Structures are given as structure tokens and as C-alpha cells.
Hints:
Layout: H1 2-17, E1 18-22, E2 24-30, E3 36-40, E4 51-54, E5 59-66, H2 71-84, E6 92-99, E7 105-112, E8 120-123, H3 124-130, E9 136-140, E10 146-151, E11 154-159, H4 167-174, E12 180-184, H5 187-200, H6 203-206, H7 219-287, H8 295-302, E13 306-314, E14 317-324, H9 327-336, E15 340-352, E16 355-364, H10 367-370
Helix pairs in contact: 3-5
Amino acid sequence: MIKTKLTLLIKKWLCNNVVYYSDKPYNLVLNAQQQFTLIPTEGEQTKTPLLQIVGRKHYTEQSENYPVGNKKELVSIIKMNNQSADNNQHSHSTYIISSLGGDQSKVTYWRFLKLPAAWLNLPETLLLSNTLAAEQVLNSQAFSAMFVTGHQQSVYSALASPLINSPERFASMFGVPCKQVINIEEPTHYAQTLIAGLKAQPIKQLVTFFTPPTSVINKALIKKTSLIAIALCVAYAGLTSVYLGYKTHSLQTQLAQNKSNVNQALNTLEQFEATNAQLNTLQGFAQNQQLTSSLFFVLQQLVTSAELTNIRFEDNRYIIRGTANKATDALQIIINNPRTNNAKFDYPSRKERRGESFVISFTLNTLQDQSIPQMPNTKSEAK
């Protein structure tokens, strides 16, 4: 739906801006089937058309080869040729350069006769040749009887005459192949072919056919256009300055915020590095230490049922003081631990308000546990 509407808008735009001229102007319109067709213009044209497709009767066409590969040199030669041509009967001329490679170039000229004013004047044979494949010849009877073909980046065309009265004779005259003939007789078919050729025309070549109408170029218009252009430039410069000022202020504000964030990030990084260095130091110290006693594995089971008040290491035996509900239960826990050996009461247990006090001594029965721990004072007490 959207594509259909867009296509219709483009067609209407072409109808408003494209005309065809062959002896008289023709308007491009849409028929009942929304197809392009051409009808004669009623009255005089009220505005200068953007694009005028010129009939073959109103220009001459010529293709020439030049042994020149440098485009600047070739343009100079083309200008000299145009100056030497008969410009009295021609209003203007245009050309298209095609490179053939190997310092060879082909130039196709179009020299137009006096024409109604238009911004772009395109020769119809150029557009028709854009729709042809290799070795095809177009035989048109719609407006002017003529033959058109394209060969080796050149356009060849001729109006029908007693000498050139068939596509085969036309092809033979120009020395081009003719394996298929395309016939056009109806204005609708002809208009659709022209528009198809216009679509296929490279946009960069359209500049060549730009011909500003002299009727619309005057000093007042140039002055008015210059003032408008200057006003637009000043407005653009002002808006650009305002935008750049705003953008500069915005970037400076953002930079200040980012600077604060960067400083905070650097402080955090510094704290992290200090903490990480301390952690590495402690980990290095811990890796070099060894567990010299399994005493704590014995005490782990004992502290749940007894309250310890003193631990000593004396004469290769561990001596524990504490209180429990039953001193014999505390002794039994130590005896049942596979890490202990020769557990016994050093003194008889005594009853107190908090339970029974005890003094139990034992040794550890593993090689590691029998090593004497390095303590500053082997008879010191840990309370």
C-alpha cells in the first residue's frame, strides 16, 4: 500500500516536471491505467520545465574516437571542436566522454537547435538507447519515424528516409549488428520507454545537459539569490557558533564530572593496591608456616562439655586445667581422641559450685604432634 502510494507520487512528480518536445511540446500524463503517455500541450507553457526530452529532429548526433586518455586534454580538444562547429543554428551543445582503455576515448556530441526554455535538455535517442540490450535496434513510429541503437558505448540514430527505410539498412549503414528489432508505435509505449531510459540514465551525466534558461537569469534574480545565499550562510554560521558553544560547555561540564570520577577511581585503586599488597604479604607469611601441634583438634571436642582455664606444655606432656559437670567425662573425651595417648588425672578432681575441677595431662601420638613447639618459655601458661 505504501509502495503503491509512493510510486504514484513519483509518477505525478514526473508529470509535473518532464515535457517532450518534437515540433511542439507534449505533456507527460497518466492515463486511466496509471501509465505514462504523451499529449499535446494546450496553450503556452506557464513555467519553465525542469526536464525537457528533445525529439531527434531538433539536434544532431555524432560519435568520435580520440587517441587521448587524459581527460583534461580531451576536454580542451572538445572545446576547440565546438568553437569550430557552426554555432549559428545551434543554441548549445553537450557531450559524454567514454573511456575505451589504452589511451583511447570516445565522445558522443549532441548539438541542439533552438528550443523552448528548460533547465535540462535530454536527447531522446540517449534515453531510448539506455533501454536496449546489445545488438538490438529500436524502430519508432510514434512521433518521428527513426531508428536507434547503442554500440560500444556510443549512441547511433537516424530519422527514417528513402535511403534508410528499415532497421537492417540502418544497421548496415552504421556498421552495427542487428539481431532483434523493437517496434514502438503507440505514444503510451513510447512515453513508458522514455521514462525507463531516464531511470537508467546515470545521475552524474545529467550535469552535462544542464542549460539554465536565459529568460529566468537576470541581475535582479542573481542579486536576490545572492542575498538569500548570504543570509543563509550567516544564519548557518550563527547557528553553528551557538551549537559549538553549547557543545563546548557541555563537554567541559562532562569533563569535570569525569575528572571527579577518575580521581575517585584512582583513590579506590590505590586503596586496593595497598590492601592487596598487605594480603600478599600475609599469604606469603602463612604459606611458610606449618602446623606444629594437633592440640587444637583435641580441644575442639573438649570445649563443648568443659570450661578450660589453663593449658601448659611441660615435660613433653600437655596439662589442662578446667571444670566440667563430671571430670571423668572430660577425661574420657580425651582418651577417646585418636590423637592422644597416656591421658590421666594429675590430681584428684574436686567438686566446686560450677562443677568438678580437674587437671588432666596427655601426650600426642603422631610424629608431628610429638615435636616440641617453639615457644618463648616452655613453662609459661596460657590463660
